[in-house]
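FAQ: What does the model actually see?

It sees only this:
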Amino acid sequence: MGYEVGDKLAVVRDLRRGQATIITIERITPSGRLYCSRDYVLNPDLSIRGLSSSSWGTTRSAEPITKEIRESLYRAHVLRTIAAVDWSKLPVSTIDTILKQIEAGEKTQCD
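And it is asked to produce this:
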């Protein structure tokens, strides 16, 4: 697959938890090596340069950003935002509305 400067890729650690880093291709060498933001250097096959094969548990490659990756990152952002809410400052009516939305969503998923 041909990549261009400015293209974005994802280095995914755990997609279920929204753990991925979005990187941007900043320079491409004639041999196809990709120099990216956040000091990532990738081989033409998108494997991360410099990782030893014994780096157990380490993400070894980048990948194109898919709809699934975008949704996972957005979901993780929303959950972090919700976790940071000071619920004691919200009116009960707002909390009740949120609860009804959650229950409606759970009911839809069970049907």
